[in-house]
Design brief:
By secondary structure, the chain is mostly helical. The protein contains 24 helices and 6 strands. α21 links the parallel β2 and β3.
């Protein structure tokens, strides 16, 4: 009876997979489910973290931690180090078990075709909740996106979706989580397109917007989005105001690049300090706790502090101090081992930067009449672009916060200026910069995993014709007549590569009736140039171009033994085919 029920379940699952793979509308339905689950996770994680703030710091439940007037020193110097100790012990356990670091949504979509491990992602989300819950200067948004994307990946793998569909679904999970966090479906949708999938297309739009809307509705039904940004309306912007906001965008680019480089320096400082891995977050917690005694605004993501500072009349000295403290606290938190994101922290610091910029511009050019609120909103968007990326994502966040198309246009101009400046001078967002420090070369979520999979090992002809390097030319001609092969690999007695012999060239060597022509190695080409099985197709084409040949031998990297040959024409054709397939997948082609 149980066997029959199990068979019926497997048959139903198989039919469901077939429907989802063959029908675009069914993918939208799956995306709605993913978005709803992401919205539920956002609500649960937020409730846990905020409950921890209330219990640890004794603040009212309706007051954000960063908006508290003051905090008890004992709470700061106990909660942050103890939370750091828990994270340090988890990291020590992970390294002892030799478990690989969790793959984030951008890395998963760029390199792994959307494949993410649910267990590792759940652990990262739990670490994020612990970090934010004990008061570290990080936001929950990275944990939101991680768990939303992992749920999407798990569902997509269970349905055996095609690579591109799985990547879209991962974008739906991460974008839905961000939409739920800010109560902003357009922001979440463009976050998925710009940062997680790496492309805009009509084929992607249906599932992405469905997931973002479903996540937003779920979180509203469960109590409201945790990071809603509310801003007053802004006076109409003139041409001079747009130019001033572009100047703010360039300033944000400089600050963002500086912050990302500082993050690498701080991480390196913790590594060379010889502090045990379990103790680094404890030390980071003590440093952040000390800063929190000056101002609690350095704690958590900064949502409460943003609401507090938005209408406040703050001096330039106070703004500079808050910017420096919040950035330092956030970077120390991440460098020491706390987990979390800089999405909202960048918005908060950007708002302070915009407020400071407005003071400076209005003091220097009072006739310009630059609205400080416009600068605050542009500062939020531009520093968000500099650190997180996504100019349209940040522009739509401002638009959904204000409902004002006029200021959104000015913010968009500033965000584009920031994006261009960061790309031309630095080239990374915070996430891709951290991946770069780990040895990866990706600069976004564009799918390059297929290229890494298209290796010489997949393309080469195995067991190519070979000849001993000391064989005579006459013996070679007898063994390999014209037309039998284009190229033959010369090897020594141990099978190691010694050169490539073109058959027509060997037969063109003039020989007398009683001459053997000497060793065939004398006419062998490229004795030092080979491919290796693990090289990708694009790198192989570069080697072909440098060697100016149409055929190369493939050798084992360790032993030098010949394992195959590859022709440039075949490698170029297969590379072009895979490039075309990847482009068609992104753009929604058949």
């Amino acid at each position: 009876m149980r066997i029959a029920a199990w068979r019926r379940l497997l048959a139903a699952a198989s039919r469901l997979r077939a429907v989802v793979r063959s029908n675009e509308l069914s993918l939208v339905v799956v995306a709605v489910v993913v978005g709803a689950l992401a919205g539920f996770c956002v609500t649960a994680m937020t409730w846990i973290a905020e409950s921890a703030h209330v219990a640890i710091y004794g603040i009212p439940f309706d007051v954000r931690l960063s908006a508290a007037a003051r905090i008890r020193p004992l709470a700061a110097f106990l909660a942050l180090p103890l939370g750091g100790l828990a994270l340090g012990l988890i990291e020590r356990w992970r390294r002892a078990r030799k478990r690989a670091p969790a793959v984030d949504p951008i890395e998963a979509n760029a390199l792994r075709g959307g494949r993410m491990a649910m267990g590792e992602s759940a652990l990262v989300s739990a670490q994020t909740v612990i970090s934010n819950g004990c008061g570290a200067s990080v936001g929950l948004e990275a944990g939101y996106a991680q768990i939303g994307a992992a749920i999407a990946s798990r569902i997509g793998l269970a349905l055996q979706l095609r690579r591109q569909d799985l990547r879209i679904l991962v974008g739906c999970g991460a974008g839905g989580a961000i939409a739920a966090a800010f109560g902003a479906p357009l922001t979440g949708a463009f976050y998925a397109s710009e940062l997680i999938i790496g492309a805009y297309s009509l084929a992607n739009a249906g599932p992405i917007f469905a997931a973002a809307l479903a996540a937003t509705l779920i979180v509203k039904a469960l109590g409201g989005a945790p990071y809603v940004v509310v801003a007053p309306r802004v006076a109409p912007l003139a041409v001079g105001h747009h130019l001033a906001l572009i100047g703010l965008g360039l300033l944000s680019a400089a600050l963002g690049v500086g912050a990302m480089r500082a993050a690498a320096v701080l991480e390196r400082a913790f590594e060379v300090s010889r502090t045990p891995i379990w103790a680094r977050p404890v030390l980071g917690g003590l440093l952040v706790g000390a800063m929190a005694l000056y101002t609690p605004q350095v704690l958590g993501a900064g949502h409460g502090a943003l609401g507090l500072d938005f209408p406040a009349a703050l001096s330039a000295a106070t703004l500079i101090a808050l910017i420096g403290l919040k950035l330092t606290a956030s970077l120390v938190s991440l460098a020491s081992g706390f987990r979390g994101g800089l999405f909202f922290a960048s918005l908060f610091v950007g708002a302070l930067l915009g407020k400071l910029y407005a003071l400076g511009v209005n003091a220097a050019l009072p006739a310009l009449g630059l609205d400080p609120t416009a600068c605050i909103l542009a500062g939020m968007g531009t520093l968000g672009v500099a650190i997180v990326g996504g100019p349209l994502t940040m522009t739509f966040l401002v638009l959904e916060s204000t409902g004002d198309l006029g200021v959104a246009g000015g913010v968009l101009a500033a965000c584009i200026a920031t994006s261009l400046a960061v790309r031309s001078t630095f080239g990374y967002s915070f996430t891709t910069w951290r991946l770069h420090l780990r040895g990866e070369s990706i600069r976004g979520a564009q799918d390059v995993g297929w290229l890494r999979d298209l290796t010489v090992a997949r393309l080469m002809v195995r067991a190519p014709p070979t000849t001993l390097a000391q064989a005579t030319i006459r013996a070679f001609r007898a063994a390999h007549p014209l037309g039998s092969a284009h190229a033959v690999v010369a090897v020594d007695e141990a099978g190691r590569y010694r050169g490539l012999v073109l058959v027509p060239e060997a037969h063109a060597v003039p020989l007398g009736d009683d001459e053997d022509g000497g060793p065939i190695s004398a006419v062998a080409r490229l004795p030092q140039t080979t491919l290796h099985p693990d090289i990708d197709a694009r790198s192989a084409l570069g080697i072909f171009d440098a060697a100016q040949t149409d055929t190369l031998a493939v050798t084992d990297r360790a032993t030098g033994a010949v394992v195959g040959t590859l022709s440039e024409a075949y490698a170029a054709r297969r590379y072009a085919q895979e490039t075309s397939l990847a482009a068609r997948g992104v753009l929604g082609g058949g």
